[in-house]
Amino acid sequence: MNNKSNYKYLLSDLSSLKGVGVKTTKLLKKKKINNIFDLLWKLPKSYTDRSLSSKIKDLRIGETQTVTIIPKKYFFPRIKNLPNRVVCVDESGEMDCVFFNSYEGYVKKILPLGKEVTVSGKIGIFRNKYQLTNPKYISEDASLIKQKHNTYSLTEGISEKVYNKIINQIIEKLPILDEWHSKELIKKFDGISWNESIIELHKPENKDNYKKNFYKRLAYDEIFSTFLVNSEIRKKIKRIKKKNKRLNIKKQNLIIDNLDFKLTQDQLRSLKEINNDLSSSTKMFRLLQGDVGSGKTIVSLISAFNTINSGFQVSLMAPTEILARQHHNLAKKILPKNINVALISGKSDYKQKKEILKRLSNHEIDMIFGTHAIFQTKVVFKKLGLIIIDEQHKFGVNQRKKLSDKGGDNCDVLLMTATPIPRTLTMTMYGDMDLSVIREKPATRKPIQTFSKLESKINDVILFIKKQIKLNNQIFWVCPLIEESKKIDHSSAVKKFEYLNMIFPNEVALLHGKTNIEDKEIILNDFLKNKFKILVSTTIIEVGIDFPNANVIIIENANKFGLSQLHQLRGRVGRGNKQSTCILMFKSNLSENAKKRINILKDSNDGFFISEEDMKIRGFGDILGFKQSGIKNFKLADPIHNSNLFLLAEKEMKRIEGANESIKKFKPLIKLYDRADIINDIA
Ligand code: ADP
Ligand code: MG
Q1: DSSP annotation string for 81-101
Q2: Residue nearest to atom 23 of ligand 1 (CA)
């Protein structure tokens, strides 16, 4: 194999490197460094310039310098804790090399008397004499150490010297890969090749130089490879032939006309996009993305109706049982009576479940609602035509792909999420799916009024709540999430519950991390039925559930949350027609920066806009739901610094897809960067 032009060398085992034995391999594996390519991203955090050589008389204390000396005399004291010492000279003067915790044999070996040796290290002074303590870089050949050395954040058990040695080796042997990008594209980076870029990246003086072409090119490679993988998954799914669904739009419109509201333009457009997919002869893999309360459920239920009406079954999976139940109830309300819907619940007993499963398997049930249990238990469908997954923004690309394989070829897949993300990240996060977006809120919706309040002014808040309760409204009270200690977390909610319960006896309930699932369901159901007025909770109140009668949310210690998170929480209210209010409580006066952030939230009810602003302020890592997305695994690319690269990659991806260009030349890029091995067969 010719190393020089083959990417496979980069995927080879670490043991092929000089100086990397079993022990080092093990240590690196612990750090998820499994092959040579992984090591390329082990970047120096700073560097030491050992090229600054000097004569003894000119040494500068406190600086790392290199000096060529002749060892003259050893002192090996027999007293514990006293260091071994070697007196060394050059023609300009005398200095000591001292060694703590060392063996005589070692000292004699590296500093043999009378022989010229070059040492390097930080120069100190002791009893008026220059001194070098535990010199690490010692060589009889000065040219070997008179250079710049990178300092790495060290893996335990591996020294800097070893790192330098390993990485220098890799850089020397770096294969020169054929350019995978087009000439036009690579011009944007001044034509710098992958190989040259990696070399630049490892030059110590180039640390964090993300404005330079080498850095941009590598970041672009990373982004583009993600897009490629996503695009390949999408193409693969689209190649799956299915039996198309014959829709009856007249019947569909009867349902729409019977709703007690008018669908928004965005809802209608999304429905049309979904319908197109359903009636096409290739499999649908679509994401319906829309801000909280934008009305995704109804769109999905109408799609379900169309599917059922063409002779197929539908399954809808929600993250919690209460949400599944709510969707089930809505379906019963809006779908024609001849359509059979059922709910698989944790509460249904064995006999009931068995009955449901039987009726599903012989197509007596058209649509089933449930949690992920739908997929875990052995549910057999006679003719499954559509899987709808609600609020699963935590699913990563891999999980989604598995999902699309479930249900068989004839089964379309619709995912829904209320997590708006910045525009630049759409392709990264959701590039494997087709996308329908609902940006518009129902016209009847009043924006949620958002205020901030100091905790010391809690009496004002209580007065406000009293008025709201008189109007028969309900209130969410969210207590601080203190990550460090679940205990404190819990007790602050309990205290708040006790405090509120004194003021509003029998009108308050409490939910926290320790409430068991059944109690939680009962409490949430009672709240839905307006059996009590205030719900105190620690954990984020389940996404998606519709509490039309709740119109006030109080969020304590609001600075603990990101803007997107606050927006999501706030989205629990304001779904009915009443004016709703969100009160953000703070322990102390806000800093200017915090005020700026909170003002974004006060001024806007648009989750997409808020997520953009949030990302600009806090970085992309903190935005809701990103942790699982894999986006954090980018080595260099940064959605904020490199937003233009994300857009460039998107444009290029669309061009390639549009021109139906072969992606064969990108094979090395995908092989190197697609660590999950999602794509293993590139035509
Ligand atoms: P989400 O997109 O967050 O899942 P839902 O589907 O739960 O939102 O809808 C939120 C509320 O808005 C529901 O009570 C629903 O009945 C209502 N709704 C949906 N679409 C409209 C519309 N076009 N006009 C008025 N209300 C609507
Ligand atoms: Mg929803």
Answers
A1: TPPEEEEEEETTEEEEEEESS
A2: 263
Where are the chain's structural domains? 1-45+160-175, 51-146, 178-239+642-683, 249-438, 449-604
According to DSSP H, which parts of 90-177 are helical?
104-110, 142-145, 160-172
Q: Any residues with Cβ below 6 Å from ligand 1, and which? A: 261-264, 267, 290, 292-298, 418, 442, 444, 544, 546, 548, 575
Class of domain 51-146: mainly beta
Q: Which ligand is nearest to the CA of 572?
A: 1
* Domain spanning 249-438: CATH superfamily: P-loop containing nucleotide triphosphate hydrolases (3.40.50.300)
Taking domain 449-604, whether its CATH number is 3.40.50.720 is answered by no
The CATH code of domain 1-45+160-175 reads 1.10.150
Rounded Cα distance between 467 and 61, Å, is: 73
Which residue's alpha carbon is at the smallest distance from atom 4 of ligand 1? 296
User: Which atom of ligand 1 has the smallest separation from the CA of 296?
Assistant: 2
- Which is nearest to 227 in space by CA: 626, 658, 651, 612? 651
Provide the pLDDT for residue 197: 94
Cα(536)–Cα(55) distance, integer angstroms: 73
Q: Is 341 helix (H, G, I), strand (E, B) or coil?
A: strand
CB 663 within 8 A of CB 228: yes
Please give the number of the atom of ligand 1 that sits closest to the Cα of 443: 24
| Mean pLDDT of successive 10-residue stretches along the chain, which has 683 residues | 70 84 86 87 72 81 86 90 91 92 88 90 88 82 66 72 84 91 95 94 78 93 92 86 94 96 96 97 93 92 98 91 91 96 84 91 95 75 92 69 76 88 80 90 88 93 96 91 52 86 95 81 91 86 77 89 84 84 89 84 89 75 48 75 90 92 90 69 53
Q: Give the pLDDT score at 4.
A: 58
CB 302, CB 308: distance < 8 Å: no
Q: How many CB atoms lie within 10 A of CB 350?
A: 7
Q: Do domains 249-438 and 449-604 have the same CATH topology?
A: yes
pLDDT at 626: 47
Cα 326 to Cα 343: distance, rounded to the nearest angstrom: 10
Rounded to whole angstroms, what are the CA distances from 644 to 115, 219, 228, 424?
58, 11, 17, 8
Q: Please give the pLDDT value at position 500.
A: 95
- Supply the pLDDT for residue 445: 83
